[in-house]
Amino acid sequence: LRPNKLLVMDPRGEEIALQGEKTKEPTFGLPAMWVDMTLREDAMFHGYTVVDSPTIITTHITELVKSNMSELLSYTETQKLLHELDKDQQKLVEELIPKRITVGGVQRVLQNLLNERVSIRDLPTILEGISEACSVTQ
Predict the structure, then answer these.
(1) pLDDT tens, position by position, 69-115
(2) Which of 20, 47, 60, 120 lies at a C-alpha separation of 20 to 30 Å from 36?
(3) Could you report the per-residue pLDDT of 31-82, keeping only the tens digit for each?
């Protein structure tokens, strides 16, 4: 990071036509340049992506969390997710766990989805898919 500087990137991948220090964007490794804050308007006029230091830090932390999300999903967290489902979804959980798959098995499925950056927000649909897969394999 460079205090009082802006990180400028060309979304087209072309060379940046401003004065500054060449670098690579830290999160995605894209070619970039540190420029003086007074060049913000010029950079925006050229259609460059302009990012300040706090945004760079936030983006980097967000990407780190996303990349390691599966490691954050513990057995206990999986149990909590299952327990917090709506009442009408609890019947699905009762039919599935532990008769057809364990909580640990569900955890591994969810971790694999997270590793692929697939959202696990729609847990009932995921559980229905697990149930169907269990039917096919048994």
Answers:
(1) 999 999 999 999 999 999 999 999 999 999 999 999 999 999 999 99
(2) 60
(3) 999 999 999 999 999 999 999 999 999 999 999 999 999 999 999 999 999 9
| Domains contained in the chain, CATH given | 5-67 (3.40.30.60), 69-137 (no CATH)
Contacts made by residues 79-88, CB under 8 angstroms, sequence distance 24+: 79/103, 81/110, 81/120, 81/123, 82/106, 82/123, 85/123, 85/124
Structure-block tokens of residue 58: 């936030």
Which residue bears the tokens 């709506």?
86
SS (H, E, C) the chain: CCCCEEEEECCCCCCCCCCCEEEECCCCCCEEEEEEHHHHHHHHHCCCEEECHHHHHHHHHHHHHHHCHHHHCCHHHHHHHHHCCCHHHHHHHHHHCCCCCCHHHHHHHHHHHHHCCCCCCCHHHHHHHHHHHHHHHC
Specify the pTM.
0.72
